Amino acid sequence: MYNDPRGCVDAVRDGRRYFYVQDAGSGRTWHTGWLPGRVKGGEYQVSAGLGTSRFEMTFARTAIQGRVFLAPDEPVEIWEFTLRNDSDNERCLRLVPYVEWLLPGYPAISSRYSY
User: Fold this and answer.
1) Which of 43, 55, 56, 108 is 20 to 30 A from 30, alpha carbon to alpha carbon?
2) Taking the model in full, what pTM does it have?
3) pLDDT by position in tens, the chain (length 115)
């Protein structure tokens, strides 16, 4: 629970987590998974087990392997990624995280005090 001083927010829910790859040389950016937008020409593979999920994605001569799992002794999730450049050229690839927070009941535009 989150107590907003204006009394607007009563709960903060987990947001959606997305990860993008940026190629500094070409300026291209693409998502590491199926959502939020599937990359045309990308190949995807996903497997899930008890407390863990693995996914692989190949696009633009880049192989991405990811794993998300729950820590056995802490209330956290852990994300691991491996990026592999399958092109013949040296590249500068960057992994960029993005979280979309969900704040139910928060009037984002309706209040003059919103920010």
Assistant:
1) 108
2) 0.68
3) 444 455 544 444 556 788 999 999 999 998 887 777 778 888 899 999 988 999 999 998 999 999 999 888 888 889 999 999 999 999 999 999 988 776 666 555 544 444 4
**Cβ within 8 Å of residue 56, ≥6 positions away:** 44, 45, 46, 63, 64, 65, 66
Q: Please give, one letter per residue, the 3-state secondary structure of the chain.
A: CCCCCCCCCCCCEEEEEEEEEEECCCCCEEECCCCCCCCCCCEEEEEEECCEEEEEEEECCEEEEEEEEECCCCCCEEEEEEEEECCCCCCCEEEEEEEEEECCCCCCCCCCCCC
